[in-house]
Amino acid sequence: MTQVQLADVEWEFIGPYLPVGGYGPYPERLRQQFEGVIWKFRTGGQWREMPAEFGPWPTVHNRFRQWRDGGVFEALLEGLIAEAARRGEADVSLVSVDSTTARAHHDAAGMHLDESVLTALERAAAEEEKARQKGAGRKDKPGDPPTVVPPTKSGDVTDADTDSG
């Protein structure tokens, strides 16, 4: 037998957020199914591995999808935050931001540049772009073959060729 996932007090808070349709689920099975969803995410097990005491796994999985698509979990989270605020227990840790998707301009991040520094950076970027367009920005790097200058069309001897000797 699997341990009970929710205390009675917790269920009293959660129960009203779960919709009961005209064709089911039966109210007495809602708690079982919700606890099955909790079991699934607490253990990390597969839906097919769910103990039978939560009901048939396809039913619990379908119920989870309906609740997810219907916004039940969002409403439940908002209700929990509101209840915590009502009790004076609201905490900043209730809010989460995924930093991999949050983008901010450098001004929003608290970086302040003097106008002269910003102008100098913009000028340097423009000069670098101009040099890149002319091809002057390429430097031979260690491990790269040296840049070879092709001979002129007329076959004239350059100063570099006359130093050989």
Protein model, in words:
By secondary structure, this protein is an all-alpha fold. It is 47% helix and 0% strand. Helix 2 crosses helix 3. The longest helix has 20 residues. The protein is elongated and about 75 Å long.
Task: Summarize the structure in short.
The chain has 6 helices and no strands. The protein has helices spanning 8-14, 27-43, 57-69, 72-87, 115-134, 159-162.
Largest sheet: none
Assembly type of the shown chains? Answer: single chain
C-alpha end-to-end distance: 94 Å
- Measured as a percent range, the helix fraction is 40-55%
Number of strands: 0
Q: Which structural category fits the helices and strands?
A: mainly alpha
- What is the N-to-C order of secondary-structure elements (H for helix, E for strand)? HHHHHH
Counted by DSSP, the helix tally is: 6
Spatial shape = elongated
Rounded Rg: 34 Å
Low-confidence stretches: none
Average residue-wise pLDDT:
76
Which strand-content bin applies to the residues?
under 5%
